[in-house]
Amino acid sequence: MGTIYDLIILGAGPAGLAAGLYGGRYRLDTLLIEKSQDGGQIAITSDIENYPGQMVEEEESGATLIRRMTKQVEKFGVHRVSAAIEKTELEGPVKRLIDSKGNVYEGKTVIIATGAHPRPIGCKNEKDFLGKGISFCATCDANFYEDMEVYVVGGGDSAIEEAIYLTKFARKVTVIHRRDQLRAAQSIQEKAFRNEKLHFMWDSVVDEVSGDGILDRMVVRNVKTGRLTEVLADPDDGMFGLFGFIGYLPNTGLLEDSGLAMENGYIRTNEDMHTNIEGVYAAGDVRVKSLRQVVTAAADGAIAACQAEHYVADMQ
Length: 316
Ligand code: NAP
Known about the structure:
This protein has 6 helices and 19 strands. It is an alpha/beta fold. The strands form 5 sheets. Strands 1, 2, 3, 4, 5, 6 and 19 form a 7-stranded mixed sheet that branches. A 5-stranded parallel sheet has the order 8-15-9-10-11. Strands 12-13-14 form a 3-stranded antiparallel sheet, with no helix packed on it. The mean pLDDT is about 95. NADP nicotinamide-adenine-dinucleotide phosphate (NAP) binds near residues 156, 157, 161, 183 and 292. NADP nicotinamide-adenine-dinucleotide phosphate binds near residues 155 and 247.
């Protein structure tokens, strides 16, 4: 018979890593499963100024923060597996997670910390230009657009912060926003309006993108007047960049038939991270909550692991 772990954590973003740290320190036999790289969204975030103790001035980034979190988890003896879970059986005293290769992982408790992913821009031909002009990660792709033209879709904190970051590389950055007012915090807006490289297309959405292999044309529609504007790449550049920052969608596709209670695809929990299924907890961006930040994800992970420890202790 295989191992039945005390705790299985699904996802190694800030919530999952914090849960791993606490699970390991509680001496729970803990397995952390991640399908790609640790860190989730913050692994690809340039500047994180609002995680306590994290200093952008000292060259710290999302990636450096995650590296420290991962190292800390390893120190406390958490087992790691790289696998894509496709199916879950969460009811009953032994929970089962099954990966794409048919491997089965069993645990007395499960913390779901699968996070969220960027919402697609929603324009025609979008999929054809992913990685060929369209990006959802400024940190990853900004240097590719050195001295070129870049467009950013969105008007929230992410869009405006990342647009400002992109001005360090591109010669011109234009924010395309569907309304005539930004949603971003006032302090971020003030910084943006002071930046001479930043421009705005208000009341606008991207309808369509095209190009011969790489992105060199798009159609932008004014939602108030219906007027269509054709945006073409500068012939000297041959292409332009289009970055989408219009919110996130929860990574809960694999949990559709799990019996977990959800709201708009996000998992419902109480304030102690309990889901509607005994022994199953959710932490971080994947759950219904009012503030999705690194600091709240990490706090969720700690609370969930503490609850898992109580549950396992009560089973004995
Ligand atoms: P957000 O605050 O939800 O903003 C999403 C933006 O995308 C909004 O401007 C929205 O327009 C626009 N949008 C949504 N759907 C769209 C569509 N289908 N087509 C075109 N535009 C669309 O998302 P976020 O900026 O990713 O931030 C997520 C959370 O993280 C927020 O709570 C934010 O405060 C936080 N955050 C904080 C920081 C920071 O504090 N430094 C940095 C990044 C993120 P409307 O305005 O018209 O709705």
